[in-house]
Design a protein that fits this description.
This protein is 70% helix and 3% strand. The chain is mostly helical and 379 residues long. It has a 3-stranded antiparallel β-sheet, with helices on one face.
Length: 379
């Protein structure tokens, strides 16, 4: 597995690769910064006159996103300059704080559209489910490293992890936020696979998780509506399928070279949640196929160099941490793009470094800084 087999191989057969880590580091850092810059430009391009009546200015969304990017860069600089090993000491506190945040959001969270996902802290809103992803990756990497010699013991590894994931996912589902809960569980399974947990043990988590997800998806009327809208988007283009239909129309309108910045439909509000869930549709329309492919290349660079970093990390904790962050980014990219391209259900999952969700952007930047720190120390 990534964390153990490649780590042992690297220790047994050290390679003289002095230029590799620096190139990976620079490629990853450059991709992250370019995506953030693209997100700022797309937020400006998606600013629409409707915001004047809602927020007092057409560029309010752009201003908020630029502020989030600024905080995200500070978060990235903080984590990239801090030795990733130091995060092991605060892993239990970080996980406890994430659990407390999930409880507080159910009790005092801001209610919008029938859900409670944000804590209103006055100057800004906080989404605890995003912080929980980072807390899970750090804590699970530390836990699996500590018990790396007991990975085949279901009572020492699989059951404790399953219990912890059940608590976290249960709190997130209560918000309700089934998409975030599914991603959280998938990250845990991906990290356990990377550590070397037997497949039969992973099946004990995967099968009940899929069954529970299917039941929850069909239990609520609004989720059933999303499923119906997914399968009948063309016939229901003015109802449940409106968002995905408009997103696909924007992508097709972009063609090969795009319509140009602020020359598409997004700034007129024709694409719902354009700066957030459907930012890729804005990219495809205004920058065309060329711009969309460039964004995909940048995202792939981060993810692939992240997995490569997991293979050559200095220790098992670093390997598992890099693998967890890479799985996290990969899942969010697949789910977000799948929703825009009508391959998956729309779940509200953001596209890393591009979407304008404040907490998500800042936490993703902090996780990317951790990944960069591991890459910088890998040889």
């Amino acid at each position: 597995m990534i964390a153990l087999q490649n780590y042992r191989r690297a220790r047994a057969y050290p390679q003289n690769d002095s230029s590799g880590p620096s190139m990976r580091y620079l490629a990853m850092l450059g991709s992250i910064l370019l995506l953030m810059l693209t997100g700022v430009v797309m937020a400006l391009a998606a600013s629409n006159p409707a915001s004047i009546g809602q927020d007092g200015g057409a560029f309010s969304e752009f201003g908020k996103h630029a502020t989030h990017v600024t905080f995200g860069i500070f978060a990235l600089l903080f984590t990239v300059g801090r030795d990733y090993r130091s995060w092991r000491r605060i892993a239990p506190s970080l996980l406890a704080a994430a659990c407390l945040g999930l409880v507080l959001v159910l009790l005092f969270g801001h209610s919008s559209g029938g859900s409670r996902r944000w804590l209103d802290l006055g100057l800004f809103g906080l989404q605890p489910s995003e912080i929980t992803k980072l807390a899970l990756v750090v804590s699970l990497a530390s836990f699996l490293d500590q018990r790396r010699y007991f990975l085949d013991r279901i009572d020492r590894v699989t059951i404790p992890v399953a219990a912890g994931i059940a608590v976290l996912c249960g709190l997130i589902i209560k918000q309700p936020n089934l998409g975030a809960a599914a991603i959280l569980g998938s990250i845990a399974i991906g990290m356990m696979w990377a550590a070397g947990v037997p497949f039969r043990h992973l099946g004990l988590l995967l099968v009940p998780g899929l069954a529970a997800g299917l039941f929850l998806a069909l239990a609520e009327p609004y989720r059933r509506g999303r499923i119906i809208g997914f399968f009948s988007a063309t016939e229901n283009s003015e109802g449940a399928g409106y968002q995905v239909t408009q997103g696909l129309a924007s992508l097709s309108n972009g063609g090969f070279r795009g319509t140009g910045i602020s020359a598409g439909h997004a700034q007129w509000g024709w694409v719902p949640e354009a700066p957030n869930d459907f930012v890729f549709a804005v990219v495809g329309e205004q920058l065309g196929l060329v711009g969309a492919l460039a964004v995909l290349v940048l995202l792939a660079t981060i993810i692939l160099t992240g997995f490569r970093t997991a293979q050559i990390a200095p220790d098992v904790f670093g390997s598992l941490l890099a693998a967890g962050i890479s799985v996290w980014f990969l899942l969010q990219v697949l789910v977000n793009l799948g929703g825009v391209l009508r391959l998956f259900l729309i779940t509200g999952v953001t596209l890393p470094f591009l979407s304008s969700g404040g907490t998500s952007l800042i936490v993703n930047a902090a996780a990317a800084g951790l990944l960069l720190n591991i890459a910088r120390q890998s040889k």
